[in-house]
Each structure stands twice: as structure tokens, then as C-alpha cells.
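Duplicate of #3305? Posting structure anyway:
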């Protein structure tokens, strides 16, 4: 007989305390004390419905975006034993399946390690049975949060501070990642008195400074930190940086909009796999598969700049994956895997010929066919 196990981690919305609930859809003996993973774990045979969650590599193949789905785990609550958990947040739900002869955690095959989809609810079913519901979500749902939430407070006065002026209050800070050496990246002037710009929260290096798009003749005069940067007053042909704070201070004056070519946060690397891994780590994930270190997977250098608009982790991961037809998904053990859609290799499992196809069309196209050539003319008014 096959048995489904559900291990649910809960968190109190009041105290932050955590609790673990373990359910099964059949009677199962407690795990032995020498089980290295779940010693003495007991499973309540109150699981009434298998969870209904589907994970897709691509939610939209044409657009290359992730798919997400939501489900729930339902348990019998006749004696009210789970009612005290009502209102608690579901952190993770781990599902495993195996034969009734299984005695330890490792005997059961991992199905999914999903995220919590909300709070525990207790109710009475239409059949008059008391039930409790634990919502389940695609683990990628955690990527819906904004990558950058910090904004300028507008507290800079004169030469003091790098928090922007009053009219910049509430403007989101920017994130610069990867190879932006041809990025022409604009930046917030966080201290106009000292002509100090912040193109990103952190920087690797500035490769060029531009005035109205044209490269200036500024020469790098050193990366300074803290008080040394604060006191620096570069001459007209030089600039200094405080890369750890994402600050750039060029000397001289400019005739128009100042922008920068740069290398972003050095910890993020310059390829799509390294940038995706950096974003996932920033979001709090720690387990990664071999795809993130496969140099041949997506070797091209890339760059990202978030600007001042709200951008989610999902937006950036989707964008990076789309560039090499990649997909990013945590497996049944919660380890993030990265790969790409490619021509199949190995023995043919099935073949479809023209006579076998009744209908074939792309119903998901969201992007127009790109133009072959564009002409741009400009002249003074």
C-alpha cells in the first residue's frame, strides 16, 4: 500500500514561534529513534485529500516566464486537535510518498517541498465533518517580493549625507548587476553639492562616465571608503568611487545628463546563471544544483539595472532565463536547479509525422516579430 506523508512547518503570527505538523493518509508506525533524519517522528493518519499542486518549467513557453500554482493540504479535524493552529502561517510543506513497509524518512520518495500559501483555516465541510486546511504554493512564489525596497529619504543637506534631496524622497534605489560596460546607466545625484551619484547599491567598477551620452575624459583616481571618500575632492579630469556604497564622485562640470558604464556588484558575476544564483541567495535560498556552475549553459555576459521602478525577483529571474531559453525551479528536496530548453539527445521515445498532426499553431505569442532594420534620423530644430 502506498502512503503519502505531509510535513508542515507553521509559524505563529503573534510570537513568531514555530511548530511542525506531520500527517499521513494511512496508519504508519512511528519512525525509530535511530532514524538520522526524523527520529521518533509520529504521523497522524488524518490526511483526507492529496494536495493539488502542479509545477511547470514554463508557465508561458513563448514568453519564457515561470508558472505558478496553488493548492492545499486538507486534514480531518474531528476532535479539534488542529484548531489551535488556525491563523498560523504555513512556512513550508514537504510531501513524500512510499510503501507501507517504509520505516525511516529516507524510504519515502520526495515529491515536493512547497511554500506556504497563506494561513491555516479550520472549518466544517459540506458533509458536516470538521476539517483543517493548510494552503500550499509553488516555492517560486517567494520570488514575487521586490528586489529593492530601500528608498531615498531626502535628508541630504549641503555636503552632508547621500540620501537625496527633499524632491527625491521616496525614490527607490537602484541595483546594478553584471556587465554594464555599454550600459549608459543613469544615476541618482544623491549629493548635488559634492556631485555624488549612486548608480547602484554596490558597484564593481566604473568603466566610463558619459555626459549626454558622450564618453568624457575622466580618469579613475581610486576606490575610497568611508571618511576618505567623504573628504575626496577630485580634480576636473578625475573621479573616485566608494564601491561598497555604490557611490561615484567625478570632478569638473557637465553640460547635461550624467550616466555611467560599469560593472555591477562583483559578487553577482557577469553571466545569467551567476546573476540568477545571486538573486536567489539574496532572497534567502541556499541550495543550488550543478546548472548554476555549468559554464557552457549560458556563457554570454549580461547586465541588469533595475532603475527606480519596483522590480520583483521573479521579473529579473524570468528576464535572465528568457535570454538563453532557461528554466529555474527547486526540485523535490528544495534544491534549485537551472537548465535550458534544448534539442533532445539520446534514443527517440516517440516520433510524430505530418499525418499525425491535426493542428499546430502558436497561441501564446506575446511579442511581435522583431524588425530587420531600423532607421533613425536626427537634426537640430
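Output from current build:
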Amino acid at each position: 500500500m502506498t502512503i503519502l506523508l505531509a510535513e508542515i512547518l507553521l509559524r505563529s503570527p503573534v510570537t513568531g514561534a514555530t511548530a511542525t505538523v506531520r500527517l499521513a493518509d494511512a496508519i504508519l508506525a512511528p519512525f525509530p529513534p535511530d532514524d538520522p533524519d526524523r527520529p521518533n517522528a509520529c504521523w497522524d493518519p488524518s490526511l483526507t485529500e492529496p494536495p493539488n499542486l502542479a509545477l511547470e518549467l514554463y508557465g508561458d513557453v513563448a514568453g519564457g516566464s515561470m508558472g505558478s500554482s496553488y493548492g492545499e493540504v486538507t486534514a480531518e479535524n474531528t476532535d479539534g486537535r488542529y484548531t489551535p493552529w488556525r491563523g498560523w502561517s504555513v512556512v513550508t510543506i514537504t510531501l513524500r510518498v512510499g510503501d507501507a513497509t517504509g520505516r525511516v524518512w529516507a524510504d519515502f520518495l520526495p515529491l515536493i517541498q512547497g511554500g506556504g500559501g497563506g494561513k491555516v483555516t479550520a472549518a466544517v465541510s459540506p458533509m458536516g465533518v470538521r476539517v483543517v486546511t493548510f494552503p500550499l504554493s509553488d516555492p517560486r512564489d517567494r520570488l514575487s517580493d521586490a528586489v529593492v525596497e530601500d528608498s531615498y529619504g531626502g535628508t541630504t543637506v549641503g555636503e552632508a549625507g547621500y540620501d537625496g534631496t527633499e524632491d527625491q524622497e521616496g525614490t527607490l534605489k537602484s541595483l546594478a548587476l553584471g556587465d554594464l560596460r555599454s550600459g549608459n546607466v543613469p544615476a541618482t545625484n544623491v549629493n548635488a553639492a559634492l556631485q555624488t551619484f549612486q548608480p547602484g547599491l554596490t558597484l564593481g567598477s566604473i568603466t566610463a562616465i558619459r555626459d549626454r551620452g558622450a564618453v568624457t575624459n575622466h580618469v579613475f583616481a581610486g576606490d575610497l571608503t568611508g571618511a576618505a571618500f567623504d573628504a575626496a575632492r577630485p580634480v576636473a579630469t578625475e573621479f573616485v568611487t566608494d564601491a561598497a556604497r555604490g557611490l561615484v564622485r567625478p570632478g569638473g562640470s557637465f553640460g547635461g545628463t550624467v550616466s555611467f558604464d560599469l560593472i555591477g556588484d562583483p559578487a553577482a558575476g557577469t553571466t545569467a546563471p551567476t546573476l540568477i544564483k545571486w538573486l536567489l541567495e539574496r532572497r534567502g535560498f541556499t541550495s543550488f544544483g550543478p546548472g548554476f556552475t555549468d559554464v557552457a549553459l549560458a556563457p554570454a555576459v549580461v547586465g541588469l539595472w533595475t532603475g527606480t521602478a519596483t522590480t520583483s525577483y521573479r521579473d529579473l529571474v524570468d528576464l535572465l532565463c528568457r535570454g538563453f531559453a532557461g528554466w529555474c525551479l527547486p526540485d523535490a528536496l528544495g534544491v534549485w536547479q537551472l537548465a535550458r530548453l534544448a534539442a533532445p539527445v539520446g534514443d527517440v521515445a516517440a516520433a510524430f509525422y505530418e499525418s499525425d498532426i491535426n493542428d499546430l499553431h502558436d497561441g501564446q505569442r506575446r511579442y511581435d516579430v522583431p524588425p530587420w532594420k531600423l532607421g533613425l534620423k536626427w537634426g537640430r530644430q
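Confirmed duplicate; merging threads. DSSP finds three helices and 20 strands in the chain. The mean pLDDT is 88.
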